[in-house]
Predict the 3D structure of the following.
Amino acid sequence: MASFFKATRRVEFCETDMAGIVHFSNFYKWMEQCEHEFFRSLGLSIVEHQADGSTVGWPRVSSQCRFESPAHYEDVLEMLLTVQRIGVKSLSFDIAFTNNGRSVARGTMKTVCCILRPGQPLESLEIPDAYRSKMEEYQEPD
């Protein structure tokens, strides 16, 4: 069984809508924040500036979120991230949101390792072994 990365966050008032529930757009922001915390927990960065002026990063190529029950102001949400797939150049994540054991939402993201060189278009790269090896323990079995 795969390990998962867990992060928590408290819902702020400004993240709710007129009905007093979390506005859907916040889940996408929180998925990205969870991804960044996951990278940091492994001693990695989502953005690496290279000596030659290029930048290696992980832009999203797809994301979706299914909402299952409302979350409200002051709720403490747990975000459980697992790696669905490690491809040659891409990573796919699953992030489950819960509140006191109740499923709130579930999202997925696919991100691609890319390099941006000055004056050049964005180019995909093979995932470096240093990243791949650290993420494998979080990968769901096939």
Q: What stands out?
A: Strands lie at 5-10, 47-49, 55-57, 60-67, 76-86, 90-99, 102-112, 114-116, 123-124.
